[in-house]
Amino acid sequence: MPKMFLIDYVGALLKGIQQLVPAITALATIWLGWRFCTFTLWPALHPQRPKPLPYLVPVLTHVFGMSKNAAALYTRGREYFGNTREIFSVTVMGEVLYIVTSPSDVQALYKEPKLSFEAVIAAVMADFGCSPDTVEKMFNKEGKLKTWMDVSHDDFRYQMHPGKEFAKLNEAFLINIEFSLKWDKITGFPVTNRASTGKLLTVSLWKWCYTVLVDAATRSMFGNAIFEVYPDVMENFYMFDQEGWKLPFKYPEFAAKTLYRTLGRSKTAFADFLALPEDQRQDSCWIVKRLEDGMKDVGIIDPAQCGVMLFVLHRL
Questions:
Q1: Contact 233/227 with Cβ under 8 angstroms?
Q2: Backbone angles phi, psi at 188, to 5 degrees
Q3: Taking phi first (over 0 means left), then psi (-120 to 50 degrees means alpha), and beta for anything else, what does residue 90 get?
Q4: What is stated as this protein's family in its record (predicted)?
């Protein structure tokens, strides 16, 4: 009896599978046609356009790769196209991102007069928490030769290109790297194990290098005062850096709690930094002082809004 039941069960199962074969064949044909048209035919017909990085499922696109490790996804794309540094595209939740990894292409993009970054910058600032009124003031050109944003770009180039202010910043950066490499400064979240004798540490090399560079850059830009109001800046920045890609995709708060928690903490901290007396912030670099003065000039005085803008500078 059990043997007969098993035979009947297997027979019914095979019959069910046979009935599904036409549907499976149709789906496979549609999928192969979609993949051929999207990743082979379309790029061949439009050789001047960036090639799309292939993905398996149309709706899901590169969501999982982006959520797991965005940098690894970009690296995989670069290597998929032979590491030629050509521009390629990545699709995430219906949005097409163009990935530029060649220094010459980046330079050409910034010099292209037909390209306007205003809409992108405005969207980014809004994502970080700038109000419509603040964004309007950034790009308002009434009675001026340049907008606040244009002046800020000029100031940023002046700060980061060879010259007096860059030399000061570079010197401070190198000094702070040396400071961060001292034994007693190797603390916090990069440390995974510390021997009871205090003479042996186990650290995450990735997190340690990350902390050393970000700590040095933060102290060089904002001075030591930022650490007085924001002692957990390194760990917070690291967590936001891992989650920040979700911001332009408008993830709801319940699906990105770490993102919004670290963003809120950072904005508050930079507002607190600006609330400190100026004599306590004298070691901040030239561009920070210029941005603060520029915000006052255009009427951006809300501490929360100013905090957002300094946090964006920190992200840069």
A1: yes
A2: 85, -155
A3: beta
A4: Belongs to the cytochrome P450 family.
